[in-house]
User: Fold this.
Amino acid sequence: MMRRVEISTIFAVSGLVLLFILSSFVSPERVYLADLEKHEGDVVLAEGTIVDIDIMSGGNTIMTLVDESDEGRIFAYGEKDVFVGDRVEVIGRVQRYRDEIEIVVDRISKLESRVAEVKIWQLAENPRKYLDSYVNVSGYVRKLEEDFMEIEDNDHRITITTPLIGDRNISEGDKIWLKGKFLYNPNKLSYYILSVEVKRID
Assistant:
């Protein structure tokens, strides 16, 4: 009798271990962001384009992700190597925080980077080509104010507004690299870049 109990216990434990191993190879259900409410408490997979990133004071990251159905809030511990404009795949648990539904990231993978490397003169000569797109640009800081800067490269310059993420120790004359969205201001009849990352080039 004891022998049967031992064998049954071994099979039961082996079965649980096998289920655990198999579960690590099974992908979670892919969901649309519009359906997150239906999956509260579940581990899900979602894809979309990052349209906003906010680094919190504690160093964690909140992203806004957009797919063909809606937008959703994504929370990640620490900073992630992704940027506004990137298309990503997110795996995490759907939960509610302060009455707002969100995905808490277990894993985030970049599927596509939609950022073009351009020169300032290219933006000046063909602005419509890059309008509303994310771009990488480098140049020298010509003017630096609290909420904007002007950078130039040879005879061309452009205004950069609201650096959200990046090096705060930037001075006039520094060479910088930045990533941001190329936009048009109809009130000032001028183009500008809304930055999401700024780095000084030593």
Remarks:
- The CA atoms of residues 90 and 108 lie 5 Å apart.
- The radius of gyration is 23 Å.
- The mean pLDDT is 83.
- The chain has three helices and twelve strands.
